[in-house]
Structure to design on (309 residues):
């Protein structure tokens, strides 16, 4: 597992994969199946793995947290950067900070708390967590009004933030006053587009952010990496061609549920047995699973075709 410095170059070097977390039938974290998924990502050229919402770290028990961290740290290659998450509750993330101090993860993402949080309160919580764990955190901005730009800029200026996962959904991602103001205040070199391949072109080509996160990269890592490389080379036409390949599965994620669909897609594609999904989330229906399976198979076929040419 990579334990070095977090630099803009590191952020730009790989699609930041956001995989599901595989569990066995008793809901224990499966070392073997998570190892398969990590190895599959690595074989496709992906070197950054973020365990967050798709891994349902919102709902993990504190009693299993250390064991979970051991699995994801030990199964990664030496050059693979693993990023765990904490929270979203303040008490949970502070308890998890004590566990994280025993590991060498360079940073940890704080899951976004919604509804019962304020911008100033979130900033204070981030500060407390970083002071407790001794390393900067990833700030995940997911909703309008979650954090004022000035509060985020102050955290960055104080060295408390390693990077920002920006994931506010817009009808037109090329028109985003909040993102524009954020970049104006802190720059773009530590901001990552956090909503998959679909808005990535607008965010990277239009706003100059460093890279993008993806769930569907877990099905087609080489294709997703090709899209990142095309954007870095300024080849928007090629990036657009690749983006369209991901759209059928992304449309299902948006139409049903991003977490549940990805959990099913990775399993149905034969990449890893993700096992039963962790409550408080439920499995997709059989008809939905069939539709997801077809989309995942088509994406796998496109991946294999790309690798063979």
């Amino acid at each position: 597992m990579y334990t070095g410095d977090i630099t803009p170059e590191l952020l730009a070097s790989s699609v930041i994969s956001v995989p599901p977390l595989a569990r066995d039938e008793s809901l224990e974290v499966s070392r073997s199946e998570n190892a398969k998924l990590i190895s599959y990502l690595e074989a496709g050229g992906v070197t950054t793995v973020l365990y967050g919402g798709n891994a349902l770290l919102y709902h993990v028990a504190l009693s299993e947290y250390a064991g979970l961290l051991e699995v994801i740290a030990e199964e990664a290659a030496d050059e693979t950067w693993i990023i765990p998450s904490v929270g979203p509750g303040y008490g949970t993330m502070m308890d998890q900070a004590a566990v994280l101090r025993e590991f060498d993860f360079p940073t940890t993402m704080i899951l976004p708390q919604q509804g019962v949080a304020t911008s100033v309160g979130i900033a204070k919580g981030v500060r407390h967590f970083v002071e407790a764990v001794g390393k900067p955190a990833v700030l995940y901005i997911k909703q309008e009004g979650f954090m004022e730009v000035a509060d985020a800029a102050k955290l960055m200026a104080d060295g408390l933030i390693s990077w920002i996962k920006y994931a506010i959904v817009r009808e037109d991602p090329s028109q985003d006053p909040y993102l524009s103001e954020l970049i104006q205040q802190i720059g773009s070199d530590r901001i990552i587009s956090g909503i998959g391949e679909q808005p990535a072109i607008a965010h990277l080509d239009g706003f100059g952010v460093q890279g993008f996160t993806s769930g569907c990269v877990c099905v087609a890592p080489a294709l997703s990496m090709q899209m990142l490389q095309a954007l870095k080379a300024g080849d928007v036409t090629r990036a657009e061609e690749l983006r369209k390949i991901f759209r059928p599965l992304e449309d299902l994620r948006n139409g049903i549920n991003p977490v549940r669909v990805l959990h099913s897609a990775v399993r149905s594609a034969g990449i890893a047995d993700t096992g039963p999904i962790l409550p408080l989330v439920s499995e997709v229906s059989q008809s939905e699973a069939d539709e997801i399976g077809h989309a995942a198979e088509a994406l796998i076929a496109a991946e294999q075709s790309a690798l063979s040419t």
